[in-house]
Amino acid sequence: MPGTPAGSARRTVRALLVLALTAGLAAAVPAAEAAAPAKPASPVQAPATSPAKPAAAPVADKPYMGWTSWSMQSSKYPGLNPDGDYSYLTEANILKQTDALASKLKPYGYDYVNIDAGWWRTADWTPEFDGNGRQTPDAVRFPHGMKPVADHIHSKGLKAGIYLPVGLEKEGYGEGKLPILNATGCTTADIVYPDLRTTNGWDSAYKLDFSNPCTQKYVDSQAQMIADWGYDFLKLDGVGPGSGKTGDNYDNTADVAAWHKAIATAGRPVHLEISWSLDINHAADWKANSNGWRIDTDVECYCNTLVSWENSVNDRFDDAPAWSRKAGPGGWNDLDSIDVGFGKMDGITQAERQSYMTLWAISKSPLYTGDDLTQLDSYGLSLLTNREVIGVDQSTAPVARPVTASGDQQVWGTKNPDGSYTVALFNLGDAPASVTADWASFGFTGRAGVRDLWNHENLGTYTDKVTEALPAHGSRLFTVKPGAGSTLRTTSYEAESPANTVSGNASVAGCDACSGAQKVGNLYDGGKVQFNGLTVKKAGRYTVSVSYVSGDARSALVSANGNTATSLKFPSTGDWNTAETISVPVTLKAGANTLTFDSGSGGYAPDIDKIAVPLS
After folding, report:
1. Which residue, 91, 73, 71, is CA-closest to 5?
2. Residue 597, phi then psi, degrees to nearest 5
């Protein structure tokens, strides 16, 4: 939910929409459900509780897969929202996409149908609430209420998802007089601060005050409501720190913890996903109390297609590395929806669609598409249903990271439990280019078998590297299996060694995550470290592994033996207490060499821990 839409619908349009929706859903749900009232008779009366469906596996044991309504309901693509902004969001459309998901993608693991922002808002975006300050479905968009929709989703063997913004929405305050359900004596005035300070990414809600026990009861009542309706997933949006906001008003860590607690007592397993562009400095909070967290802005372009390459698919290549060590069973880095299934509507090239899906898979992001599932083209369907690529996303291997500098041509990878490697090649440039993955970047050498996952093809054995010519914004995805006895032998050199030359602002500093518990830091405005005495027997091109620490992406000028320096961008390691490695190709002479890392004038370089130079 990026903001509040403008515009309103005429009453006559709304009346016609009610008739159309009622007719459509009557055929889609059982008669008993169709006859059910849209809302409880009393605002304080809880809906009847549906029996909880036993979980097949722990919540978020693997990244979830499914479909979301947001991409289409937010797009300007012709015909998607004919009755005004966000008008796509209706029962009829949710049920249509549910049926398409069940028939086309469910066999491949896609099983969530997630309803995004607006289910409690009228056509002119006016919110509707019950007598306890909780969002209640708009009778035009959802004339049968939310439970029959969830029941239909479940009837297809799928899981139902719903959306809420963090905080107490202003319109739900009710002058502070609304009672909190199951909390005697508590009103909406008790659960917010007296000064009515605002929160969330749009300042559309009052910040909840968890020093008052009434506040947890309010969140409990919201969690119970969605559990009683039968929902298995909640996207909690506008969460901070992040979502474009900083400061105490926008610190919603207590809200996320309260939702975690409320879900635990609601009687139904509910996946809690938080959004958007969250602060990585609170990664431990997100992991402790949620099952997934958006690491970036909305992927949608809010234009006449669903997405565009520049806004903001390609941003993820810079932003994902920092989060790579934060994910694991129970909680995953969410890169947002994968709109790769219908090229005409998606608005990106085939090469871009494959690279998009490749990055999401190697990052172990949840795989949820926002496409119109009734119109998937053959290429899009092949991307979304490639079992080998889905297997990378769903495997137990660690999240992949870049193993080369973050330029236009990049290599990413990770080691799999069976000793093989997942290796992805990306050309992010605007023109065709070749990209090479050196086996030395992964710590082995010699011969290795290569399998092309997108094309389901064994490519044979490659020695020391694989090189592919890629189109603009293109990619390849391989499984690489080294031969026996192929471990790369290297010599390590510590940055803090007295044999090296440290100059300018650079200095030796402690580092618990580093080899030898030290590093060379303060590499800024001309600060540099020069490794001396790097010895090799033969002249040639060497792939040197560089261990470094950098809380953000930083560049360094790298040069060997005083030759022309190359500026290389080092991906973020996530914080200043985590060390990672990338490989740097350098040309060395036989005998002793120097290798220099220079911040440059006015620049900031990463802290350097050590380097490892291949023996040959």
Report:
1. 73
2. -115, 115
Closest CA to 267 of 114, 112, 50: 50
Cβ neighbours of 416 (radius 10 Å):
17
Instruction: Give the contacts of 266 (CB within 8 A, at least 6 positions apart).
Output: 220, 223, 224, 226, 227
Q: What is the pLDDT of residues 420-446, one digit of tens each?
A: 999 999 999 999 999 999 999 999 999
**Rounded Cα gap, residues 58 and 93, in angstroms:** 30
Q: At what angle do helices 146-155 and 91-104 cross, to 10 degrees?
A: 10
What DSSP assignment string belongs to 283-348? HHHHHHH-SEEE-SS-S--SSSSS-BTTTBTTTHHHHHHHHTTT-BTTBEEE------S-HHHH-S
Query: Which domains does the chain carry?
Result: 11-38+63-394 (3.20.20.70), 401-482 (2.60.40.1180), 490-614 (2.60.120.260)
What is the rounded average pLDDT of the residues 11-29? 39
- List the structure tokens of 442: 């992964």
Q: pLDDT, tens digit, for every residue of 195-238?
A: 999 999 999 999 999 999 999 999 999 999 999 999 999 999 99
For the chain, helix (H) and strand (E) counts, in that order, are 13, 30
* Residue 170 near residue 192 (C-beta atoms within 8 A): no
Q: Considering the entire predicted model, what is its pTM? A: 0.91
Write the pLDDT tens digit of every residue in 287-341.
Answer: 999 999 999 999 999 999 999 999 889 999 999 999 999 999 999 999 999 999 9
Q: How far is CA 9 from CA 78, 126, 343, 471, in A?
A: 18, 11, 30, 45
Determine the pLDDT at residue 616. 83
